[in-house]
Amino acid sequence: MATTATSDVGPGAGAPFSSIITTVRRSLTSLANKGKQHARKPEDGHAQITRLIAIQPKPNSPPHPPDSQASAGKDSHEKPPLHLLALPTELLNNILRHLNFVSILELRKTCRFFHTLASPPQLRILFGREQLTTLLLQHCKTCLVHDPFRSNLLSCSHEDEGWPLASQCVDCALVANDERLKIGKRVKLGTEDVVQICRWCGRPIRNHEGVAGPPDPNSPGTRRDGRPFHKGNCYRSYNNSLLFFFILGWVQLTLGITGAGLSWRYWRGAVMVFAPSVASFMLLWIVMGFLFFRGSRKRAYRYTLLLELAILGCWIPPVYYISMQIVNHPERDVDAAMQAALALFGLNLVFRLFNVMGNVVIVFSTPDLTPRKKPNAGLFKRAIYKLMLWSVAWTYPPSVEHRLSSE
Fold first, then answer.
1. Which residues on neighbouring strands pair with residue 194, listed in sequence order?
2. Pick from 145, 155, 142: nearest CA to 189
3. Alpha-carbon dihedral angle through residues 124, 126, 132, 138, given to the nearest 10 degrees
4. Whether 241 contacts 393, CB under 8 Å
5. Domain F-box, which positions (predicted)?
6. Average pLDDT per block of 10 residues along the chain, 407 residues long
7. Cβ-based neighbour number of residue 211 at 10 Å
8. Which of 73, 80, 102, 168 is most buried (CB neighbours < 10 A)?
9. Could you count the other beta carbons within 10 Å of the beta carbon of residue 277?
């Protein structure tokens, strides 16, 4: 047997063995060429990781039901859904510590789990007594708005009902007609700053907003209390009303002087024209004296109202007399002097009527026109107060600076 085996691999068998080796090499070369033809392009690291994540199953993916193997094979590569309930309780408590009470109340309405997790006993344990008290003081008791700096909240004390949830924001205080937000008073904010109330909008003037007005000579670096306005739109609107009043005052003075001059020149013989015109001219200067020398300490508007009523009555007879002359003598030509006199007398009558209305508003509004800025003011109320504001701007806008008895 050994001799036979040796003879099989001897020199006579070399040709068949070499042919086998050649055949194997050709097969391997053919396989290598086919592999090159079907080889993929090299992938970068991001593509490889993405392909591996897409191929490998998720270790935490929930098991699929046995009766839906096809859908399981389709959804096995999808990312499992993420929600708050999947987080551990420690992380949920940490999230609760960064929420305000409005968000916590909304969260409690979502499900039973969060209703229990954010229950009042749990919140007391989670926040602690001091932090919970501070957090409650930062919320408005009415609308629960959160103000971490308390700059828009009114101050509260331990004696207030519901403390520490006893603070109130400025908007809710305006809606509730809080007596602390009245012009002429000072109010204490949640920041412990005692500030004034703007006489134009009725809101507190916080320290960073500043108090507009001329400097107080007795206290360098401060402002007079007579002009508590916000430096921005409020003081700008007030200055615009002063400019309007200044221009309007000169127009009224010009009309009064011109009307008296026309009656002196053309209607000296008509008593119903000349006498009332002279009287109104004299009363006009008395009113001007009140405007120039009236201070902000005493309210003299009732006397100005009486004078305006007298001037209004003085301009009625001239208008009536000239109108009757035109109606009773239609054959006469209406000359330029009569037309000018009738126009000027009528304008004086209209201007004095507006002055009477403005003085009535000033006397009875004392002089708070800030309800037009309240959040709950209706359209009709805003229109009425806007009309009153224009009446004050027409008559005497500095009346909003008048010091009240509470000051």
1. 188
2. 155
3. -130
4. yes
5. 81-130
6. 39 50 57 50 38 36 40 52 80 87 87 89 86 88 89 89 88 87 85 87 78 47 57 87 91 90 86 91 88 65 88 92 85 80 90 91 73 74 83 84 62
7. 19
8. 168
9. 27
